[in-house]
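Q: What does the predicted 3D structure of Cleavage and polyadenylation specificity factor subunit 2 look like?
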Amino acid sequence: VMLKLTMYDIVESRMAKEDFKQFTLADIDMAWDNFVVLRYQQSCSLSGKAEGITISPLNAGHMIGGALWKITKESEEIVYAVDYNHAQDRHLDGTVLVDLPRPNILITDAYTALDKNVLGGKKAREQRLVEYVLSARRQNGNVLIPVDSTGRVLELLIVLDELWQQSPHMQGVTLAFLSPESRSIIDMAMSQTEWLSKHVNQRFIQSRHNVFHLEHVHRCCSREELARLPYPQVVLASGLDLETSSFSLDLFAEWATDSKNLVLLTQKARPGSRARQFQDLLGKGHPLPPDLMLQMHRRVPLEGRELREHEEQERLKALEARRQLEEEAEEAEEEENDTLAAMRKLLSARSARRKRSMAPTAQ
Protein backbone atom coordinates (compact mmCIF):
# COMPACT_ATOMS: atom_id res chain seq x y z
CA VAL A 1 0.00 0.00 0.00
CA MET A 2 2.83 2.43 0.82
CA LEU A 3 4.40 1.79 -2.58
CA LYS A 4 1.05 2.55 -4.21
CA LEU A 5 1.05 5.94 -2.46
CA THR A 6 4.60 6.50 -3.74
CA MET A 7 3.34 5.98 -7.30
CA TYR A 8 0.44 8.36 -6.64
CA ASP A 9 2.91 10.96 -5.37
CA ILE A 10 5.09 10.72 -8.48
CA VAL A 11 2.18 10.89 -10.93
CA GLU A 12 0.40 13.75 -9.17
CA SER A 13 3.64 15.75 -9.01
CA ARG A 14 4.18 15.29 -12.74
CA MET A 15 0.56 15.96 -13.73
CA ALA A 16 0.51 19.20 -11.73
CA LYS A 17 3.29 20.70 -13.86
CA GLU A 18 3.37 18.95 -17.22
CA ASP A 19 1.34 16.88 -19.66
CA PHE A 20 2.14 13.50 -18.15
CA LYS A 21 0.18 10.90 -20.13
CA GLN A 22 2.22 7.71 -19.74
CA PHE A 23 -0.27 6.39 -17.19
CA THR A 24 -2.89 7.64 -14.75
CA LEU A 25 -3.91 7.02 -11.15
CA ALA A 26 -6.57 4.64 -12.48
CA ASP A 27 -3.84 2.64 -14.25
CA ILE A 28 -2.00 2.35 -10.92
CA ASP A 29 -5.17 1.08 -9.23
CA MET A 30 -5.68 -1.46 -12.02
CA ALA A 31 -2.11 -2.71 -11.72
CA TRP A 32 -2.37 -3.02 -7.93
CA ASP A 33 -5.46 -5.22 -8.27
CA ASN A 34 -3.10 -7.88 -9.68
CA PHE A 35 -0.80 -7.88 -6.65
CA VAL A 36 -0.99 -10.59 -4.01
CA VAL A 37 -0.40 -9.27 -0.48
CA LEU A 38 1.74 -11.48 1.77
CA ARG A 39 2.59 -11.08 5.43
CA TYR A 40 6.09 -11.63 6.76
CA GLN A 41 6.97 -15.35 7.01
CA GLN A 42 3.93 -16.29 4.89
CA SER A 43 4.74 -18.87 2.21
CA CYS A 44 3.38 -18.66 -1.31
CA SER A 45 3.70 -21.57 -3.74
CA LEU A 46 4.06 -20.49 -7.36
CA SER A 47 2.36 -22.20 -10.28
CA GLY A 48 2.82 -22.59 -14.01
CA LYS A 49 6.44 -22.51 -15.15
CA ALA A 50 7.48 -21.74 -11.56
CA GLU A 51 5.65 -24.72 -10.07
CA GLY A 52 7.59 -26.26 -7.20
CA ILE A 53 9.05 -22.91 -6.08
CA THR A 54 7.98 -21.34 -2.77
CA ILE A 55 8.66 -17.72 -1.82
CA SER A 56 8.42 -16.05 1.60
CA PRO A 57 8.85 -12.34 2.47
CA LEU A 58 10.99 -11.49 5.49
CA ASN A 59 11.40 -8.18 7.31
CA ALA A 60 14.04 -6.01 5.61
CA GLY A 61 13.88 -3.21 8.19
CA HIS A 62 14.24 -0.26 5.78
CA MET A 63 10.58 0.74 5.30
CA ILE A 64 7.05 -0.34 6.22
CA GLY A 65 6.41 -3.58 4.34
CA GLY A 66 9.97 -3.70 2.97
CA ALA A 67 11.00 -7.31 2.39
CA LEU A 68 13.82 -9.71 1.77
CA TRP A 69 12.77 -12.82 -0.15
CA LYS A 70 13.48 -16.42 0.68
CA ILE A 71 13.11 -18.59 -2.43
CA THR A 72 12.93 -22.33 -1.92
CA LYS A 73 12.83 -25.26 -4.32
CA GLU A 74 13.14 -28.74 -2.87
CA SER A 75 16.25 -28.57 -0.65
CA GLU A 76 17.77 -25.50 -2.33
CA GLU A 77 17.31 -22.08 -0.70
CA ILE A 78 18.09 -18.62 -2.08
CA VAL A 79 17.84 -15.38 -0.11
CA TYR A 80 17.38 -12.22 -2.19
CA ALA A 81 18.38 -9.25 -0.02
CA VAL A 82 19.33 -6.10 -1.91
CA ASP A 83 17.93 -3.39 0.36
CA TYR A 84 17.81 -3.75 4.13
CA ASN A 85 18.60 -2.03 7.41
CA HIS A 86 20.36 -3.68 10.36
CA ALA A 87 19.64 -0.91 12.86
CA GLN A 88 16.65 -0.64 15.15
CA ASP A 89 14.62 2.39 14.08
CA ARG A 90 12.05 4.28 16.10
CA HIS A 91 9.24 2.61 14.16
CA LEU A 92 10.83 -0.52 12.63
CA ASP A 93 12.75 -3.54 13.83
CA GLY A 94 16.07 -4.25 12.12
CA THR A 95 16.29 -6.84 9.38
CA VAL A 96 16.00 -10.55 10.19
CA LEU A 97 18.79 -11.33 7.72
CA VAL A 98 21.41 -11.92 10.41
CA ASP A 99 19.18 -14.52 12.10
CA LEU A 100 18.53 -16.65 9.02
CA PRO A 101 20.15 -20.06 8.53
CA ARG A 102 22.87 -19.94 5.90
CA PRO A 103 21.22 -20.29 2.46
CA ASN A 104 22.67 -22.04 -0.57
CA ILE A 105 22.86 -18.68 -2.36
CA LEU A 106 22.71 -15.13 -0.98
CA ILE A 107 22.05 -12.31 -3.44
CA THR A 108 22.83 -8.96 -1.83
CA ASP A 109 24.41 -5.56 -2.45
CA ALA A 110 26.85 -3.11 -0.87
CA TYR A 111 25.10 0.11 -1.91
CA THR A 112 26.27 2.18 1.08
CA ALA A 113 29.23 0.08 2.23
CA LEU A 114 31.78 2.75 1.24
CA ASP A 115 29.59 5.76 2.00
CA LYS A 116 31.39 7.98 4.54
CA ASN A 117 28.08 9.52 5.62
CA VAL A 118 26.94 6.28 7.25
CA LEU A 119 30.02 6.02 9.46
CA GLY A 120 29.59 6.42 13.21
CA GLY A 121 26.29 4.61 13.49
CA LYS A 122 22.69 5.68 13.58
CA LYS A 123 22.91 7.88 16.71
CA ALA A 124 25.82 9.85 15.31
CA ARG A 125 23.95 10.48 12.04
CA GLU A 126 20.87 11.65 13.90
CA GLN A 127 22.99 13.95 16.05
CA ARG A 128 24.54 15.50 12.94
CA LEU A 129 21.07 16.02 11.49
CA VAL A 130 19.87 17.77 14.65
CA GLU A 131 23.00 19.95 14.79
CA TYR A 132 22.54 21.07 11.17
CA VAL A 133 18.90 21.97 11.79
CA LEU A 134 19.75 23.91 14.95
CA SER A 135 22.56 25.79 13.17
CA ALA A 136 20.12 26.90 10.45
CA ARG A 137 17.68 27.96 13.17
CA ARG A 138 20.33 30.17 14.76
CA GLN A 139 20.75 31.95 11.42
CA ASN A 140 16.97 32.18 10.94
CA GLY A 141 17.31 30.13 7.76
CA ASN A 142 15.11 27.53 6.10
CA VAL A 143 16.04 23.86 5.80
CA LEU A 144 15.13 21.68 2.82
CA ILE A 145 15.37 17.88 3.15
CA PRO A 146 14.58 16.06 -0.13
CA VAL A 147 12.99 12.72 0.74
CA ASP A 148 11.33 9.66 -0.71
CA SER A 149 7.58 9.62 -0.17
CA THR A 150 6.98 6.59 2.04
CA GLY A 151 10.32 5.13 3.12
CA ARG A 152 13.00 6.77 5.28
CA VAL A 153 10.97 9.98 5.44
CA LEU A 154 8.84 8.42 8.19
CA GLU A 155 11.86 7.88 10.46
CA LEU A 156 13.05 11.44 9.78
CA LEU A 157 9.63 12.83 10.68
CA ILE A 158 9.69 11.01 14.02
CA VAL A 159 13.23 12.22 14.79
CA LEU A 160 12.41 15.84 13.98
CA ASP A 161 9.06 15.78 15.78
CA GLU A 162 10.92 14.65 18.91
CA LEU A 163 13.37 17.55 18.44
CA TRP A 164 10.46 20.02 18.32
CA GLN A 165 9.02 18.49 21.50
CA GLN A 166 12.30 18.64 23.41
CA SER A 167 13.91 21.86 22.18
CA PRO A 168 12.45 25.28 23.07
CA HIS A 169 14.69 26.76 20.34
CA MET A 170 12.45 25.22 17.64
CA GLN A 171 9.27 26.93 18.83
CA GLY A 172 8.08 29.28 16.11
CA VAL A 173 9.78 27.22 13.37
CA THR A 174 7.48 25.39 10.96
CA LEU A 175 8.10 21.66 10.48
CA ALA A 176 6.32 20.42 7.35
CA PHE A 177 6.01 17.32 5.17
CA LEU A 178 5.35 18.48 1.60
CA SER A 179 3.95 15.86 -0.76
CA PRO A 180 0.79 15.51 -2.87
CA GLU A 181 -0.06 12.52 -0.67
CA SER A 182 1.34 13.72 2.67
CA ARG A 183 -1.95 13.31 4.54
CA SER A 184 -2.68 9.87 3.13
CA ILE A 185 0.88 8.67 3.76
CA ILE A 186 0.88 9.53 7.47
CA ASP A 187 -2.70 8.28 7.92
CA MET A 188 -1.73 5.01 6.27
CA ALA A 189 1.41 4.72 8.41
CA MET A 190 -0.73 5.18 11.53
CA SER A 191 -2.92 2.26 10.46
CA GLN A 192 -0.02 -0.11 9.73
CA THR A 193 0.83 -0.97 13.34
CA GLU A 194 1.14 -4.70 12.58
CA TRP A 195 4.14 -3.92 10.32
CA LEU A 196 5.93 -1.78 12.91
CA SER A 197 8.43 -2.75 15.58
CA LYS A 198 7.55 -4.87 18.62
CA HIS A 199 8.27 -1.90 20.90
CA VAL A 200 5.90 0.37 18.96
CA ASN A 201 3.20 -2.29 18.98
CA GLN A 202 3.51 -2.87 22.72
CA ARG A 203 3.31 0.83 23.45
CA PHE A 204 0.23 1.14 21.25
CA ILE A 205 -1.47 -1.79 23.03
CA GLN A 206 -0.67 -0.42 26.48
CA SER A 207 -1.38 3.29 26.02
CA ARG A 208 -2.95 3.61 22.53
CA HIS A 209 -0.04 5.92 21.67
CA ASN A 210 0.71 5.89 17.95
CA VAL A 211 4.28 6.72 16.94
CA PHE A 212 2.94 8.61 13.90
CA HIS A 213 0.84 10.98 15.96
CA LEU A 214 3.20 13.78 14.98
CA GLU A 215 2.02 16.85 16.87
CA HIS A 216 4.46 19.32 15.31
CA VAL A 217 4.37 18.15 11.68
CA HIS A 218 2.25 20.10 9.21
CA ARG A 219 1.07 17.95 6.31
CA CYS A 220 1.05 20.02 3.12
CA CYS A 221 -0.15 18.77 -0.24
CA SER A 222 0.72 21.90 -2.24
CA ARG A 223 3.08 24.86 -2.31
CA GLU A 224 0.12 27.13 -1.57
CA GLU A 225 -0.53 25.32 1.72
CA LEU A 226 3.14 25.57 2.66
CA ALA A 227 3.27 29.29 1.83
CA ARG A 228 0.53 30.00 4.38
CA LEU A 229 2.73 28.69 7.22
CA PRO A 230 5.19 30.97 9.07
CA TYR A 231 8.91 31.17 8.36
CA PRO A 232 11.54 29.94 8.97
CA GLN A 233 10.61 26.45 7.80
CA VAL A 234 12.09 22.97 7.93
CA VAL A 235 10.51 21.09 5.04
CA LEU A 236 10.78 17.45 4.10
CA ALA A 237 9.78 17.64 0.43
CA SER A 238 9.06 14.72 -1.88
CA GLY A 239 11.62 14.26 -4.63
CA LEU A 240 14.68 12.52 -3.20
CA ASP A 241 16.67 13.01 -6.42
CA LEU A 242 15.72 16.68 -6.96
CA GLU A 243 14.11 15.56 -10.18
CA THR A 244 12.15 17.82 -12.52
CA SER A 245 8.55 18.51 -11.40
CA SER A 246 9.27 17.60 -7.76
CA PHE A 247 8.46 19.81 -4.77
CA SER A 248 12.05 19.42 -3.60
CA LEU A 249 13.42 21.00 -6.80
CA ASP A 250 10.96 23.89 -6.52
CA LEU A 251 12.17 24.73 -3.02
CA PHE A 252 15.80 24.12 -3.95
CA ALA A 253 15.56 26.67 -6.77
CA GLU A 254 13.93 29.18 -4.41
CA TRP A 255 16.03 28.69 -1.28
CA ALA A 256 19.50 27.74 -2.53
CA THR A 257 20.32 31.31 -3.48
CA ASP A 258 20.32 32.41 0.18
CA SER A 259 23.38 31.36 2.21
CA LYS A 260 21.30 31.31 5.43
CA ASN A 261 19.28 28.38 4.07
CA LEU A 262 20.40 24.76 4.22
CA VAL A 263 19.83 21.74 1.98
CA LEU A 264 20.33 18.35 3.67
CA LEU A 265 20.75 15.25 1.50
CA THR A 266 20.11 12.47 4.00
CA GLN A 267 19.92 9.54 1.56
CA LYS A 268 21.97 8.34 -1.36
CA ALA A 269 20.21 9.49 -4.50
CA ARG A 270 19.71 7.62 -7.75
CA PRO A 271 22.82 7.44 -10.00
CA GLY A 272 22.76 10.12 -12.67
CA SER A 273 20.29 12.32 -10.79
CA ARG A 274 20.96 15.93 -9.85
CA ALA A 275 21.13 15.12 -6.14
CA ARG A 276 23.59 12.29 -6.79
CA GLN A 277 25.83 14.63 -8.78
CA PHE A 278 25.94 16.95 -5.77
CA GLN A 279 26.70 14.05 -3.43
CA ASP A 280 29.50 12.77 -5.66
CA LEU A 281 31.12 16.21 -5.84
CA LEU A 282 30.91 16.77 -2.08
CA GLY A 283 32.10 13.23 -1.39
CA LYS A 284 35.28 13.96 -3.34
CA GLY A 285 35.83 17.21 -1.47
CA HIS A 286 34.87 19.42 -4.42
CA PRO A 287 32.63 22.49 -3.97
CA LEU A 288 29.37 22.78 -5.85
CA PRO A 289 29.49 25.02 -8.95
CA PRO A 290 28.47 28.63 -8.22
CA ASP A 291 25.94 28.62 -11.06
CA LEU A 292 23.50 25.80 -11.75
CA MET A 293 21.27 25.29 -14.77
CA LEU A 294 17.92 23.86 -13.62
CA GLN A 295 15.15 22.59 -15.88
CA MET A 296 11.83 23.54 -14.29
CA HIS A 297 8.34 22.58 -15.41
CA ARG A 298 5.38 24.76 -14.57
CA ARG A 299 1.82 25.10 -15.82
CA VAL A 300 0.88 28.68 -16.80
CA PRO A 301 -2.33 30.03 -18.39
CA LEU A 302 -2.09 30.50 -22.16
CA GLU A 303 -2.63 33.99 -23.49
CA GLY A 304 -2.85 35.80 -26.82
CA ARG A 305 -1.46 33.98 -29.86
CA GLU A 306 -0.56 30.84 -27.87
CA LEU A 307 -4.11 30.55 -26.57
CA ARG A 308 -5.56 30.97 -30.08
CA GLU A 309 -3.17 28.37 -31.49
CA HIS A 310 -4.06 25.94 -28.70
CA GLU A 311 -7.80 26.44 -29.27
CA GLU A 312 -7.30 25.89 -33.03
CA GLN A 313 -5.36 22.69 -32.36
CA GLU A 314 -8.09 21.45 -30.04
CA ARG A 315 -10.74 22.31 -32.68
CA LEU A 316 -8.81 20.38 -35.35
CA LYS A 317 -8.38 17.43 -32.99
CA ALA A 318 -12.13 17.41 -32.33
CA LEU A 319 -12.87 17.54 -36.09
CA GLU A 320 -10.42 14.71 -36.74
CA ALA A 321 -11.93 12.62 -33.94
CA ARG A 322 -15.44 13.24 -35.34
CA ARG A 323 -14.28 12.32 -38.86
CA GLN A 324 -12.77 9.08 -37.59
CA LEU A 325 -15.98 8.23 -35.74
CA GLU A 326 -18.04 8.91 -38.86
CA GLU A 327 -15.70 6.74 -40.97
CA GLU A 328 -15.88 3.94 -38.43
CA ALA A 329 -19.69 4.24 -38.37
CA GLU A 330 -19.82 4.12 -42.18
CA GLU A 331 -17.52 1.10 -42.28
CA ALA A 332 -19.62 -0.62 -39.63
CA GLU A 333 -22.78 0.16 -41.61
CA GLU A 334 -21.23 -1.16 -44.83
CA GLU A 335 -20.13 -4.34 -43.06
CA GLU A 336 -23.63 -4.72 -41.64
CA ASN A 337 -25.19 -4.18 -45.09
CA ASP A 338 -22.78 -6.68 -46.64
CA THR A 339 -23.64 -9.19 -43.93
CA LEU A 340 -27.38 -8.66 -44.47
CA ALA A 341 -26.97 -8.99 -48.23
CA ALA A 342 -25.01 -12.22 -47.79
CA MET A 343 -27.66 -13.56 -45.43
CA ARG A 344 -30.45 -12.64 -47.91
CA LYS A 345 -28.52 -14.32 -50.71
CA LEU A 346 -28.00 -17.43 -48.59
CA LEU A 347 -31.69 -17.55 -47.58
CA SER A 348 -32.75 -17.03 -51.20
CA ALA A 349 -30.51 -19.87 -52.34
CA ARG A 350 -31.88 -22.17 -49.64
CA SER A 351 -35.45 -21.23 -50.57
CA ALA A 352 -34.76 -21.97 -54.23
CA ARG A 353 -33.29 -25.36 -53.39
CA ARG A 354 -36.29 -26.15 -51.20
CA LYS A 355 -38.70 -25.23 -53.98
CA ARG A 356 -36.83 -27.40 -56.45
CA SER A 357 -36.86 -30.32 -54.06
CA MET A 358 -40.62 -29.94 -53.53
CA ALA A 359 -41.49 -29.62 -57.26
CA PRO A 360 -43.20 -32.75 -58.83
CA THR A 361 -40.97 -34.84 -61.06
CA ALA A 362 -42.00 -35.96 -64.54
CA GLN A 363 -43.27 -39.59 -64.82
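A (community wiki): The C-alpha coordinates above were generated from the sequence. The radius of gyration is 30 Å. The chain has a mean pLDDT of 86.
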